[in-house]
Structures are given as C-alpha cells and as structure tokens.
Amino acid sequence: MTSRMVERAMNAELEPEGITFRQAQVLAWMALDGGGLSQVELAERMNIEPATLVSVLDRMARDGWIERVACQEDRRRNLVHPMPKALPAWQKILACAGRVRTRAARGLTHEQQETLKELLGIVQANLKCPAKDLASNS
Fold it and tell me: Which residue, among 42, 34, 33, 73, has the nearest Cα to 60 in the 3D structure?
C-alpha cells in the first residue's frame, strides 16, 4: 500500500511537469544501471509487461529522451539509452522525488529514517532470495 501511495504522490508531483511516473521509472533505472538496458529488462525492473512499456518508450523516443539501439550480440533485442534531451526531465524528477521523500519522512527523526532504510534493505534482500532458500534459514 505504501508503494502505491508513493507512486500516486510522485504522479501528482510530476503531472504539472508533463512527466509520467512510468517515464520517471525508465530514467531512474537507466541512471541506476548506467543505461543500455533492454526493453525486457526495463519492463522486468518496473514490474510491468513489456507490451505496456512500449507506449511509454514510444513517447519518450518521440520527445527525444531516449533512443532504441539494436543489440550487437542479439539483433532481436533493443537497448534503451538516455539522450541529452532527457536531462531537464531528470532534474525535475529528482526534485519531485525529493519533495515526496521529504513529505513521506515528515515526523521521523534522522535515526528513524536510517533504521527504516536499513529495514527496507533487509526486506528487499529477503525478497530477492527464492522462497526455498528462506525455509532453510528459519
């Protein structure tokens, strides 16, 4: 539920900038992974169907934010790369994300925020493990 609330808050912050949450996700994953992700890899990270991602990428390509390049090793794969024209949008996304984070953390001390990050890191690590591995660790 919290994840959906963050997504809604981000959408509300980004809408006046003409940016969608999905576009922000694409740019964020490319920033985290250094660009050059395939459309399938991006869809997997964003937890959406590759077909759903196509329209997002089409709009971003139309606006000059990304380019799709055929993979040298596998011509069936398209790699997505950010373009310089995406930088102003990325700056707006970072500002919006900062405002949402500040709002979400309101009332938490610095120590509580650090504890929350640590606990969420543990949850993420646990969920990366296959379920069968968890049974042997309990």
Answer: 42
